[in-house]
Amino acid sequence: MAECENNHDNKQPSSLDTQRPNLSELLDRGWKIFEEVDSTNLPLGSSSIQVGVKRGIGMLEEASRMVAQLDLFSRNEELEEVATAELKYLLLPALLGALTMKQTSRDKRLQIVQTARAYFMDFLRRCKEYNISNFKIPTSPEEDPSCVEAPDDGSTAAKSGPCQSDLVAMAAQRQTKIERYRQKKDLETRLTHVRGAIDSGLDDDDVNRDFYLLNVQRWVTVCLEEIESIDQEVEILNKMDVLKHSAAKQPTQPVRPPMKPFILTKNALQAQVFGPGYPSLPTMTVDDWYEQHRKHGVLPDQAISKRDNVDDDANATEREEEEKEKKAEQDDEESLLKARNWDEWRDGHRRGYGNRHNMG
């Protein structure tokens, strides 16, 4: 735990220390804030949690500046040369990255994850320099030369390395995750035993050294998992940004003005009646509507042809009547005889006689 201290870190604070926390206090407070935020049941986006996150980041950043000024770690020394009291300061970049990932600003999400990735990579590089754990430092897609993306023209390009989704690469990645998960669980179990020993009063240099080394090794597995997640999120965020820019560049379609409604009336009288009742709606008669469509040439052909047929039938009927009248005027014997016979038959037979349709 973050409260685990060495004897030289438990000095009585002076008046200057009460005003400004020392290096050990800054790390312990920042570590404690992270544990509280990581285990809380409150929403991560709540104001109280975000205030604590910012306060913890400020403490850990101040501690990192102090470590850089003191030059506690060097590439030329071995892990055995690092004092036990200084081992815990190796965790500063990892805790900074973990607290940075707890920020919830959507507008700055890409900046947040990139900053956290930089902290995690700094921690992993330092652990690699001291050979604390056996792992491979991850590389981003931009840094990996073996990753060849498909060109924009749609042609096929060769892909190799981690960008090729073949069965071998997928199986190797799955096996790596399984081994990392087992290693993390084993480290957590050993940490539990060491913490129990410290809580029981066994607080010597070897126990404290094991405690901090186990914590550093556990955070190596955590940082590797976080970097994989960050790389996937960065890819998604970049694609979303490209889609937003492309959507903004596309020309907008012209908006057609909506059609104004109107009431179709039979005559001018109805137009006068409906007009005052619906002052916001224009009115027109059928004749006005027909005349307006005739001027624009939008009358349907079917209606025009149908009207021509009706006119032809009416003209034929008129011509037939005229011929009958002419024959009657000329006293056509055959026509007169046929008319007389028809009148006599009608006089002797009632209406409907002989109509046996549908009577069995």
What is the element layout, followed by pairings?
Elements: H1 15-19, H2 23-39, H3 47-70, H4 84-87, H5 92-100, H6 109-129, H7 167-199, H8 205-249, E1 263-264, H9 268-277, E2 283-284, H10 286-296, H11 301-329, H12 333-348
Parallel strand pairs: 1-2
Helix pairs in contact: 2-3, 2-5, 3-5, 5-6, 6-8, 7-8
Quick structural summary:
Helix 2 packs parallel to helix 5 (92-100). By secondary structure, this protein is an all-alpha fold.
Which sheet architecture does the biggest sheet show?
A: 2 strands, parallel
Oligomeric status: single chain
* Main sheet strand line-up: 1-2
Q: What is the terminal separation in angstroms?
A: 109 Å
What share of the residues does DSSP label as strand, in percent?
under 5%
Order of helices and strands: HHHHHHHHEHEHHH
Taken from the alpha-carbon principal axes, the silhouette is rod-shaped
Helix content: 55-70%
> What's the number of extended β-strand segments?
2
Count of helix runs: 12
Overall mean pLDDT score? 77
Low-confidence stretches: 3-17, 146-163
Rg result = 47 Å
Which class of secondary structure composition applies to the elements? Answer: mainly alpha
